[in-house]
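Model it.
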Amino acid sequence: MLVNTPVEGLRSRKKAETRRAIEHAAFRIATEHGYEATTATAIAAEANVSLRTLFNYFPQRDQAICGPTIELKDPALVGQQLSEAPSVLQGVLDAFDACTPALGGPTGAQRRMLIQSSPELLHLHHSAIDRFEQELTALVESELRARPERRRLGADVSAAEEARLMVTAIGGVM
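Modeled.
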């Protein structure tokens, strides 16, 4: 049986290529010349794009240097997945797994080292994690309030506390 899968259009592919070119240029400059030498002008020149294009893709040069971060792109879809998961905890784990960018391999290790070596990048990285966890916690709390039979910690713990505990525990493991 044939599955009807959407074909990525030329425009989408070109946008993805431009984004990757900018991220690659920013990462290369930062690892070879240091964070301070990684200017928006240098990134744009290396990626062969205009400054305007650079800032259309990345509002801050630091976002281009950091590369992909954890992000809740479709809260409605994640909410639906939470309600369909065998347990809320499994749904939280699945959400982390789906929303965490792959940072494996030597480039991932280099990117993590680069982020940890710069207070500005580390702050940006932690802010993304905090934002994601707050958004996911709100979705989990909503699921626990809508379906109290899925709660596991009893009446002494509020749905907000249980949601925060789940997200914090899975986040710590991830």
